[in-house]
Design a protein that fits this description.
The structure is a single chain. This protein starts with a strand and ends with a helix. Helices cover 56% and strands 12% of the residues. It has two domains: 3-157, Rossmann fold (3-Layer(aba) Sandwich); 165-252, ProC C-terminal domain-like fold (Orthogonal Bundle), CATH 1.10.3730.10. The protein has an eight-stranded mixed β-sheet, with helices on both faces. The chain is an alpha/beta fold and 273 residues long. Its main location: cytoplasm. It catalyses: L-proline + NAD(+) = (S)-1-pyrroline-5-carboxylate + NADH + 2 H(+); L-proline + NADP(+) = (S)-1-pyrroline-5-carboxylate + NADPH + 2 H(+). It comes from Priestia endophytica DSM 13796. Catalyzes the reduction of 1-pyrroline-5-carboxylate (PCA) to L-proline.
Length: 273
């Protein structure tokens, strides 16, 4: 199966690297292009049998599955330009959340899917969010599920929970990286621990925490109960978190959804004009 990538920015590159290094795809079966050609060529230096195309049209011509890894507002102009090249045997895969598979199906005459990846896929872990269009045939669904299972746990979602799912799966690593960095900074500010020491300890703690959850020995609430001994130090720390966290995460979701609504309006104008 020949696979194309239009766009080799952060997420496009992560998908390409992950698919190749997990042995899900042979680099010789991948054709890529990018507006800044040097970015595509830098990937080719790492994987010499990767094909670099001159433009999106060449990618479509050489591929069965085409991943669209460009910004949401760049998708409609791009598809307007190349849609005569997209045939029923092609499968177009968007990785952006504001554009639905229904909108794509109304614009192009090929099979359609939406896959929202996460940076955690680079470690062959985490979740990939999947929504298949009605046009997407079973053999492409099975192939994409197999492909994604090499780098993640594919999870099918409906359009109504796209944003919150993306917040958790795709934005979550950035949100919690920020919180962990604040945790490190506060430890350094309040005690004699060095930044390197705190970073090492917290990094190893997070890895161990993830492995512990992976065993299914504990749920999040029961894990908290196991660590939080009555009258102990952990309980005092939890009290502070309960007092100060408050509606912080509610506000995070409110803010991301407000931006999402703004993006939906802009994208909707493009697709409906």
């Amino acid at each position: 199966m020949n696979i194309g990538f239009i766009g080799t920015g952060n997420m496009g590159s992560i998908l390409i690297e992950s698919f190749i290094e997990s042995n899900a795809v042979n680099p010789s079966d991948i054709t890529i292009t990018n507006r800044t050609r040097a970015k595509a060529e830098s990937l080719q230096k790492s994987y010499p049998s990767l094909h670099v195309a001159s433009d999106a049209s060449e990618v479509i011509h050489k591929s069965n599955i085409i991943f669209l890894c460009v910004k949401p507002l760049d998708i409609h102009p791009l598809l307007e330009k190349v849609r005569p090249l997209l045939k029923p045997h092609h499968c177009l895969v968007s990785i952006t959340s504001p554009i639905s598979v229904k909108q794509l199906e109304e614009l192009v005459d090929c099979q359609v899917a939406r896959i929202i990846p996460s940076i955690t896929n680079r470690a062959f872990s985490g979740v990939s969010l999947v929504t298949y269009g009605e046009s997407c045939k079973q053999h492409y669904r099975l192939f994409l599920d197999h492909l994604l299972s090499k780098i993640s746990t594919p999870l099918s979602i409906e359009n109504n929970i796209t944003r919150v799912s993306s917040d958790i799966v795709s934005c979550g690593p950035a949100f919690f990286s920020y919180l962990l960095q604040r945790f490190i900074d506060s430890a350094v500010e309040e005690t004699e621990i060095t930044k390197d020491q705190a970073t090492k300890m917290i990094s190893e703690m997070v890895v161990g925490f993830g492995k512990l959850l992976e065993t299914n020995l504990y749920t999040l609430p029961t894990l908290q109960e196991k660590v939080c001994v009555k009258g102990g130090v952990t309980g005092e720390g939890i009290k502070v978190l309960e007092e100060h966290v408050g509606e912080m995460f509610n506000k995070v979701f409110q803010q991301t959804h407000a931006k999402y609504d703004e993006d939906l309006e802009k994208v909707g104008y493009q697709f409906n004009k």
